[in-house]
Amino acid sequence: MAAIEVRGLERRYSGGVLAVAGIDLEVSEGEIYAFLGPNGAGKTTTVRMLVTLLAPTGGTALVAGHDVVREAPSVRRSIGVALQEAALDPLMTGRELMLLQATLHGLSSEEGRRKGEALLDRVGLTQAADRRVGTYSGGMRRRLDLATALVHDPSVLFLDEPTTGLDPVSRIAIWDEVRRLNGEGTTVFLTTQYLEEADQLADRVGIIDDGRMAAEGTPTQLKAQVGDPHLEVVIAEGGSERAEAILVRFGDPMPARDGTLMVGLRRGAADVAPIVRALDEAGCAVEALELVQPTLDDVFVEKTGRHLEGAGDHQPGVEKTAPA
């Protein structure tokens, strides 16, 4: 059974504005699914419908096997939700908030305390449990919000931009916890503005633009759609013409940039060693060599015509190689 199954989902606002225009998507049980989109693309509206905070005006959506309209209470019992703006009372302590959340989900006092302590320990907040949340850092608040979303053992977890604004250490801590939860069987539906986050965590990625699904697939599949990796080579002075003649034998030449020669490689990394040997045999001194893989930003630009807000952050997929 799919953890999330959406068919023709639509949300039309007053005045005829169609924020979500009949999208289809399916998330398998135990999958991490990253949902990407530019501002105003319908990403947040879709999530709000899936977590029963907003009623669809068309189509259907099943979450954990329950219809989000007809069986909204069952959906809410089955999911955990950590929204970007965590609604955490700054005057309460971390421990008090955990107990409150447990009570709201119908857990007994004893079970609520037990689960609360275990989850606070899990997200590394035991020592800060009796401090008021208003004194927590941004990363601590995100971890507490995640813990409160887990108190009732949800089968599907919705994370809305869980690491936005966090420092790198806090971001990695959230990533590690998401991986651990997923390894225990929790399905994760993740929205993010960081392409690296989607690349690192997601089994599959969906891109929404203007209320419609623009692309869907694994990160590898999507990147393969936008072209082959390319090699960037800097040659010592005097050897560029010979190097260009060699590179064209291995792939598709690309325009040089600031003295850097570039060639698209159909076989990817497998062509690097033969190219280096050929350049060496021709007497071309290699000063720098870089194999550049297509990125999710390339995919996003091709599918939407825009960069995602977080695309300026470090992206994986660039392999730097010292010449032999």
Describe what this molecule looks like in 3D:
- With 324 residues, the protein is an alpha/beta fold.
- The protein folds into 2 domains: 2-223, P-loop containing nucleotide triphosphate hydrolases (Rossmann fold, 3-Layer(aba) Sandwich), CATH 3.40.50; 227-321.
- Helix content is 34%, strand content 27%.
- It is built from 11 helices and 15 strands.
- The strands form 3 sheets. It has a 6-stranded mixed β-sheet with strand order 6-7-8-3-9-10, sandwiched between helices. A 5-stranded antiparallel β-sheet has the order 12-13-11-14-15, with helices on one face.
- β7, α6 (168-183) and β8 (187-191) form a beta-alpha-beta unit.
- The model is unreliable at 314-324 (pLDDT under 50).
Radius of gyration: 24 Å
- Biggest sheet overview: 6 strands, mixed
Low-pLDDT runs? 314-324
Average predicted confidence as pLDDT: 90
What fold name goes in the CATH topology slot of the largest domain? Answer: Rossmann fold
Helix content: 25-40%
Q: Please identify the structural class as seen in this structure.
A: alpha/beta
Bulk shape: elongated
List how many beta strands DSSP finds. 15
* N-to-C SSE string, H for helix and E for strand: EEEHEEHEHHHEHEHEEHEHEEHEHE
Provide the CATH superfamily of the largest domain.
Answer: P-loop containing nucleotide triphosphate hydrolases
What is the second-level CATH architecture of the largest domain?
Answer: 3-Layer(aba) Sandwich
- The CATH class assignment of the largest domain is Alpha Beta
